[in-house]
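#struct-queue
[09:14] JT: dropping the first one here, sequence first, then the structure tokens:
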Amino acid sequence: MTLEFRDLEWALVASQQRSLRQAAERLNIRQSTLSRRLRNLEYLLGASLFERSTGGTRLTAAGELFIRSAQRLVDDANTTLTTLRTFGRGGNGMLKVGVQTSLATGNLRATIIEHQKRFPGVRIHAVDGSAQQLLFHLDSEAIDIAIGLEDGLRWNGHFQALWSERVVIAVAADHHFAAQDVVHWPQLAGERILIPAHGPGSDFQRLLLARLGYFAGDRILYQDVGLDRLLTFVGARIGLLIALEGATGARYPDVVYRELREGEGATRVNFRACWKKENANPALIQFLAIIRERFPDLSSS
């Protein structure tokens, strides 16, 4: 005979009811079944746990010691089971998200906020990087999902088209562009352009060179700092900053944003999400469900 988890639970109920008849009724079993199981438990432990009389049952000194230990074991087991069930539903654990855009505003920020509302027990770990860096992290399983610009995230695994964002230019509030509603790409010729070394920096460089050619090459100032420092540089008139619509939620003194246009239309870039098919992280599965809910995949891929 071996000790079973059920023995602990039945002994706890018997100690709480002080009557085997009432304990059996609560457990929905026969009193003789409960009595026999408790006798077997005492035999296994080599100690008497209950004093039985016509007035009911009460714990012996050994029984009180056993019940205290049994209560801790049952509580710990139930907590573990609850945690595992929640984890299986994506309700806790960690989700590692590779991002290539600002979270100051926009669709990615809104998606993460919605996920946290539904699954507050999940810890979000964000990893910034270029498209190449995010794909490397995804392949090495350092992140669960990569979200970035479609042109850069060329992934052989699972992916889904998401949203598009406008390309904007951040300028100092006293720059002459600030007086315009929009800025056209040719107007950037001769301006010093700040490009982040990480994130979507390489994509911005391609956009700039494709539209301005060699006029832009010697005017690019690569910066290995985050958005806050780049905007500080913009306000100090060190240069202009190409950014995405999601960055416009970051407000800095003496900095304004203007839409970049080509012809009559806004310049837009498309986003996609990439992940590994075999990744069974429940938190990822729930995150993907929210993405599909908010951004249905209408592509043929």
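[09:21] JT: and here's the second one, same format:
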Amino acid sequence: MTRIAVIGTGGWGKNHVRVLSELGVLVAVCDLDRSRSEVYAKKFGIKGYSNVDEMIRSEALDGVTIATPASTHVSVASKTLRAGINTFVEKPMTSSVQEGEELIKIAEASGKILTVGFIERFNPAISELKKLTKGGSLGRPILFQYDRENRRGDNITDVGVVKDASVHDIDTARWLFGEVVEVNCRAEANVYTNILNDFWMTLKHQSGLEVSVFSSGHASWIIPFERVEVIGDHSCIITEELNRISYTLGLDLPTQVQEFHYLPPTTSWGVEEEDRLFVDALIAKKSPPVTVDDGYKTVEIIEALYRSAKIGKPVQLPL
């Protein structure tokens, strides 16, 4: 039997707890808030811990899912990897490029899996978007634009709105169109003046395609608070939220619409698929679809964006 534990059960972690329990592989949870871990332990009939070291000593684990604050990813993941445990860490993989390089070395020395939670790769609407853009139906992509709104950017001051939310947009752009060779960014501290929370970002890919991303950390979160628009040869694709995709692939063709509102949230968000693929990778002893390189390069792109905003000009990649 595959044995997996979840570290960090608040916020996003509770989704992994439920999905991994349904997959029949969850054996333990760990949270600094002991009362929270005890609630989940009782609900799912598993062990509850408030100390990661104690859990590692007490449980024979094949894998862990880390859903703690991003600023703790390196400290927690380094413990699990050094203990010989395959590790799934939520996005962003690390808070900085330096931390990313450190964690990669630890993962390589351990010989264990290190993968990152980029759920939007597994969302039905984004998966359909990839099929259309990569299958040739769109023609040549000319414009690719993301718009993302967050309600309370001041609540994620440990990494900011780009690493916390727009990290998905940046990863998806790289997943669809390949490596980013240059970035340009303007950033402002509006509303919450203690942190940059409005970002106008451009990612230039090796193909020459430039992807535009706008991210705000103080919007009202009016639906759709996440939107993608792609324009090709007499073609257009629009996703709204993670539940709907509309596309027209020719001047004389009707608009096609696919709705995914009927799906459970963890399905439409992509949590179920990414957790299943992590379990499959452990069982088959194979590489997961999201690699450690994917996690590192996204952090590197974001660091380049912040540098660009600071110096007021484009920054080349790799750093």
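[09:30] RK: nice, looked through the second one.
[09:31] RK: Residues 142 and 244 are 22 Å apart (CA to CA).
[09:31] JT: good to know. The chain is about 40% helix and 25% strand.
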